[in-house]
Amino acid sequence: MFKLKFTIAFILLSTKLFSQDILKLEEVTNIVLQNNFSIKIIQNQQRIAENEFTRGNAGYLPLITAGGQASNTYFFYNQQKRFLRNKAGTGDSTTISNYNGTTNTNESANITMNWTLFNGFGMMATYKRLEEMRAIGQENTKVTIENTIAQAQSAYFNVIQQSKKVFTFQNALEISKERLKLAENKYKVGSGAKQDYLSAQVDYNTDSSALIAQNQLVSISKTNLNLILNWPANTLFKTEDTIIVNQNINIDELKNAVTNQNPNLLVAQRNKNVAYLSLKELQAQRFPLIYAFTGLNQNFSKLRASTFPNGASGLGLNYGISATMTIFNGNSLNRQIQNAKISEQNYQYQYESLKQQLLADLENNFLQYKNSIALMALEKNSLTIARQNVVLALQRNKTGIATSLETRDAQRNAVATESRMIDATYNAKIAEVELMRLSSRILKDK
Questions:
Q1: Which of 33, 178, 319, 425 could be stapled to 294 by a disulfide with Cβ–Cβ 3.0 to 4.6 Å?
Q2: What is the pTM of this model?
Q3: Where are the beta strands (DSSP E) in 237-384?
């Protein structure tokens, strides 16, 4: 049902996508869930873990086997009798018998059942361990999905970031073109120096080169997103042109979510549970193993001979209860139990270490998130001033008050300020995406 819904959604999404030619963030999430190979692989691994979670695999169910055999033996039979002379004087007597082509046929069939009744509660521990392994498979699937969604969203926002910089460089190129035309006119009428004209040409070529390089970065960013979406590398699409940052994230809520919802931390917790249950399985070997058995056996044999053919058949039923217990095995079991206890302790350490690492990552990303938001506001204000400065510099240049170098400096400041504002917005959004991933809210909030 889950797969069917995504298939229908993907078909509708594809039609919608090619009709409007704009790829939205929500569509990226749905396409990744449908197409990404990493998600498909981890989902198959989850199915394997689910298939392993059965009572039969834990040892609760009986083992029933059936077998049969048929054989023929072909042999020659020779018999020889000799009688010695007796006191009465009777002579010797010898008898020789040959039975050629004698065949002995044996046939047997059996069905047996062995059923473990008690193994020191090992079956219960095994069943719970398989249940934990199934849950680990589910959490690992969630880890892969959330990581892949975060990767896809970051790639999507990178396309927007690089595309916005294209507009920045295009505006810079338009200003350089205007400066070049102005310097050329001044040079032709004799009111401007040739050096200013040549400098304007160099600046125009520099800005043209920067625009070409930026368009290349846009293409690379789109190729990277196509790879995550499992689309052909040269697939063309458009994205939204604005990155909207949620500026009201609460760090305390995120900390609570990381502790209780982060799938990596849940996997670490379940690995600790698996280690504990593995220890219980080993400790169960100290108890006797009790099992019931029964079997039905049928045998048939027949000897075909020319003189005395005969045969026999039989049907038998056996049943009972058996118990075994290991008395001493060179302290091997004690050693295994001691190692299992150490392993369980290590998983506890790994859990605590991962928890601290996740909370530290949360703090670092939240700091980047807050600083980037602050930089967004700062650079936005600076950009307004820088753009006004460019307009004034161009006007002063036209009237001969400002030099071409002063105009170029104002232009560079505007481009650098706008680039910093775009980068700050992108960094804030990437930090937000990472915060949502760490708190396992990356899908809930979309």
A1: 319
A2: 0.82
A3: 238-239, 289-304, 310-324
Handedness of CA 9, 12, 14, 18 (dihedral sign): negative
Q: In this structure, are residues 245 and 428 in contact, taking their beta carbons and an 8 Å threshold?
A: yes
Closest CA to 169 of 213, 137, 129, 127: 213
Q: CA-to-CA distance for 231 and 18, rounded, in angstroms?
A: 13
Tokens of 389: 């400065």
First to last CA, the chain: 21
Q: Are 143 and 267 in contact (CB under 8 A)?
A: yes
What is the separation of C-alpha 438 from the centre of its chain, rounded to a whole number of angstroms? Answer: 16
CA distances from 34 to 11, 41, 97, 240, 440 (A): 10, 12, 84, 21, 20
Provide the 3-class DSSP secondary structure of residue 37: helix
Domains of the chain: 36-64+119-287+331-438 (1.20.1600.10)
In this structure, what token pair is assigned to residue 138?
Answer: 């589910």
What is the C-alpha to C-alpha distance for residues 34 and 384, in angstroms, rounded to an integer? 43
Q: What is the DSSP letter of 244?
A: P
Contact 169, 210 (CB under 8 A): yes
pLDDT in tens, the chain (446 residues): 434 444 444 444 444 444 447 899 999 999 999 999 999 999 999 999 999 999 999 999 999 999 988 887 765 555 555 555 555 555 555 555 555 556 778 888 999 999 999 999 999 999 999 999 999 999 999 999 999 999 999 999 999 999 999 999 999 999 999 989 988 888 888 877 888 889 989 999 999 999 999 999 999 999 999 999 999 999 999 999 999 999 999 999 999 999 999 999 999 999 999 999 999 999 999 999 999 999 999 888 876 654 455 677 888 899 999 999 989 888 999 999 999 999 999 999 999 999 999 999 999 999 999 999 999 999 999 999 999 999 999 888 888 787 888 889 999 999 999 999 999 999 999 999 999 999 999 987 54
Q: Is 17 exposed, middle or buried (0-12, 13-18, 19+ CB in 10 A)?
A: middle
